[in-house]
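Chapter summary example.
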Amino acid sequence: MVNTERLNHTFCDLVRIYAPSGKEGGVRDYLKRYLMRLGARVTEDGAGAATGGACGNLIAVFPANAEGLPGVAFTAHMDCVEKCEGIEPVLEDGVYRSKGDTILGGDDKAGVAAILEALAVMKETMIPHGKILAAFTVQEETSLGGSRHFEGKYAEGIDFGYVLDADGAPGTLINAGPGEYKITCTMHGRAAHAGIAPEKGVNAVKMAAAAIARIESGRVDEETTCNVGVIEGGLATNIVPETCVVRAEARSRSREKLEAVVARMTEAFRSAEADFPGGRAEVETELLYEGFHIDEDHPAMRLARAACAEKGFPVRVTSTGGGSDANWFNRNAFPAMLLGVGMTDFHTSAESLAEKDLIDSAELVYAIIEAESHVCGH
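The structure predicted for these 378 residues follows.
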């Protein structure tokens, strides 16, 4: 059903467009032309202004052509990590790779191309469908900025959606992801000459070290992690350091566990004050995004399973430990789950994408649309 020549051409076009986070304008323009040719109503929202980027999310709407079918969204992000300038995709032995030392950009141009191809086939076959929304977001790689600032009004009439932005072959259904806190601790000590009067100082770096030693790190349990990632402090070896900044994170798919681990981390940082009289621990915590979970009996899951069965794709339901646009879509717009598109070694020059996974991803999106009428119809 999918036009593989067209799909491959679209994918190669997309990865060649330089689109680091905040500079997605070239991809935006390409998608706008493509979607308007398909007859979609195309809108750009205000996420660009909200994030300081070159453009906002691109939103395309295809009105329902049949009654009683759910509104479904398909989303992918337009940006990629560096090195993404001058990408030249090469297809050898059924696998896409970058010809040079750049990334390939399959994260997430594979998801974008798959959605575009499925929509083209949908228009060509004129199958019955409910309202279809295609949303292409900005700045996913840096801050989930596009989905964070996606306005709920653009999702009116949409019942649920799918985010094509995960590893794993098509048939990988990710129905849960964690919430994440950012934790920043500034240890305030007292400066002194390290050789002449060290006893007059309070060593902020040692304060931080003592606190970090009390923090559980790595995998706390099957759905909870925490990590101390950055330590910055001191000016010179002959000065007792007056300040030290520690940046850490905590994630969990359980909000209760997340709050508990953040509380323990905060307490560990503050406990250093007792060991270093005159020192002070200033702790700031920020919830970056909330977790999400899609139940097994949710219509989004039932529809995805039916589509996989139609195409003969083995289903693997799993969860993720990372944040994605799905986190913000679940909070601000509609229930959403992640779909695997086969990306491998993404964010590196070793990145690759099997042509079969690209084709199967487009087939799955089309199959989801096609399955609406017999899974969700009345």
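To summarize the output: The chain has two domains: 4-177+292-375, 179-289.
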